[in-house]
Amino acid sequence: MGGDRINYTGDCGTPTADLLTVKLLLNSVISTPYAKFMGIDIKNFYLNTPMPRFEYFRLKLDNFPEDVILHYGLRDKVSSDGYVYLEVRKGMYGLPQAGILAQKLLEERLEKHGYKQSKHTPGFWKHEWRPICFSLVVDDFGVKYVGKEHAEHLVAALKEDYEVETDWEGTKYCGVTIDWDYKKREVHISMPGYVKKACVRFEHEMPRKTQDSPHKHTVPTYGAKIQYAKESDTSRPLDKEEKRYIQKVIGTFLYYARAVDGTMLPALSALASDQASPTEETLIKTKQFLDYAASHPDAIITYKASDMVLATHSDASYLSEPQARSRAGGHFFLSNDVPDPPNNGAVLNIAHIIKSVMSSAAEAELGAMFINAKEAVPARKTLDEMGHKQPRTPMQVDNSTAVGVSNNNIQPRRTKAMDMRFHWLRDRESQKQFKYYWRPGKENLADYWTKHFCAAHHKQMRPIFLTPSSVLEALKESLRRNPPMSMGAAAAAA
Predict the structure, then answer these.
(1) CATH numbers and ranges of domains, the chain
(2) pLDDT in tens, 353-370
């Protein structure tokens, strides 16, 4: 169906869970005693959905098979210019409203069984009283349950109206491979083979020498009284094909970086800021990024059981980007309710160029805090809906002035440009949503996403954020030697 030619006056937006919601759910599974995870897939979710308003389109008679032409007598219905006009009475692919119609029908059907979708978190559902909840991405369910009978209740409810497939091991979801270690209460997520396929697609060969830095290192001028800005890029502008190549690389790796390998985000952010008017220098940076990806494929993130308290590190680099811009970095993870929460696998990393020009390092830090706090507010609500009540979200910052302003311990003057940000942060602190505290810069993990570091720093920091492949290989070997008991066998043994 040619959706671009249909004028549908209703809302076509379909709520679907994002990666942050999925990662929070995975952490919730591993942190909840006796909880398990499974996947459910609905077949033909968008097809045959009742439509309150019919749609119409035309098709050339030559496009119909001969048996269909004879069966429906289409030669008697064809127009003078060779078209057959058709009426669409049920949902089909291409309709702009197909998604929302299927979603509303699912809501009606599941509500009869006690399942309701969250009004605050798109794509998150839970039962009125059963210990079961799930995230929904198009037609894929990621289900957390405590007790198999509750998962079977959801499966039975869906089978009344749909053809479904179940994955009781919960090993695939949203294109991500999930390896569960319920004994150690850990879960590993990865996307094996993704980088290799991307390199084949872009015809990029493995570099002769391992590339440990995803971007060119910006060397600081130590001891200089004045830090001059980088000279403008005067290299050759790229043609349309080269420009499209860079855009494809960014689009392909952005999902991978957000899903599992956050170390790529600063490089992708810098490339994205140049993609509108790329030059030969941009192409060189892209090749270096691909060298890094090829040198470090198959990244793994590990989540460990915790108190499910959202924690974040916030940092900024002042005037480190072209056109006098600064960069904001954030590291979000779920940890324990202690004054200085220990690190866990990242559920979200921020690597944003701050659009406004910051007038001081403190203002840049406040801008980064503002960006990170805005991301944390909906995550707090999602965790609350999952059953994990949130205390004040600890936000670690390495700038004492920014912390003092946010905590209302410093009364700034002549700060019109900063007013909105620090008053918003103060407001959220007074509502007991956040707790801002200072730690030295070397302990701030968000610093990694604010600058272009040397290769040695990347080699040092990568094991902190990502899991060595040997850990996952050891888990798989252990499962091969001692395979877990299947659901049917466990029920029989019980």
Answers:
(1) 15-46+96-174 (3.30.70), 50-90 (no CATH), 194-222+235-471 (3.30.420.10)
(2) 888 778 788 888 988 999
